[in-house]
Every structure is written in structure tokens, then in C-alpha cells.
Amino acid sequence: MITKDYKLGQMGPALAAPYGLETLVLHSFSPIDTYATQLALALKSHASLRHLHVMYLGEASAQGLRMLMALPNLQTFHVCLSSSVAKPQEKLVESIAQEMGVDLELTRW
Questions:
Q1: 3-class SS at 96?
Q2: Tell me: domain 21-108, CATH 2.30.30, correct?
Q3: Is the pTM of this model over 0.90?
Q4: Rounded (10°) CA dihedral 23, 43, 56, 66
Q5: Which domain of life is it from (predicted)?
Q6: What is the distance between the alpha carbons of residues 64 and 89, in angstroms, rounded to a whole number?
Q7: Burial level of 100, CB count in 10 A (0-12/13-18/19+)?
């Protein structure tokens, strides 16, 4: 599990293992431009990644979401939103997933 305190630049070497990564779960992660860019660059070389789970999508940007959903071979983007996340933010995630052709699993807690 990777939290917001984890240095995303360290992720690339940490994932450079001889086995494939199919599912990644991010806890307390907000895909704003800077973080999403760093994460997308770190994961771009992992063509085995199929499923990305983001727990508590706080603040997000359209550009950040697009970068994550454009990862090669990404099939499912699962977002678990807290009840405090506004409806427009939820609609943004839904519209970008549809635009990018990624299956979206959206839940609230």
C-alpha cells in the first residue's frame, strides 16, 4: 500500500521487480496534477498493471485523472470516495473514465 507520504519518485525502482504488477491500491491519494504525473511516469513502464484502486479521492484534477487512466493496459479504475467528496467531483471521475474507455468502479463510504 502506498500512502500520500510515500515519495512517488521512489516507486519506479521499487516496482522494477522480475514479476508483474496487476493491481495497485493507493490509500489517501488525491490525483492532482503533480502527484498524478509522478505516479503515471513511475507506472508507465509496467504494462502488466490492469487495475488501479484509489481510496479516498479527495481533491483531483481532470488532467491528473486523465494521466492515470491513460496508463497502458489499464482496465479498471476503482475509486472509493468519502461521503464528504462533492457530487461534481464524482461526476468528473465518471466522465473522464467514460472518455478514456476505462471501466469505473465507484463506491462511497
A1: helix
A2: no
A3: no
A4: -110
A5: Eukaryota
A6: 13
A7: middle
The helix (run of H) or strand (run of E) holding residue 95 is: helix 87-100
Q: Helices 62-69 & 33-43, crossing angle to 10 degrees?
A: 10
Amino acid occupying residue 98 = Q
Helix (H, G, I), strand (E, B) or coil at 60: coil
Q: Domain coordinates of the chain in residue numbers?
A: 21-108
Q: C-alpha distances in angstroms, 64 versus 12, 19, 31, 99?
A: 18, 27, 5, 14
- How many Cα neighbours within 13 Å face the side chain of 31? 26
> For 19-65, what is each residue's pLDDT tens digit?
677 888 887 777 666 777 777 887 777 778 889 988 866 677 788 88
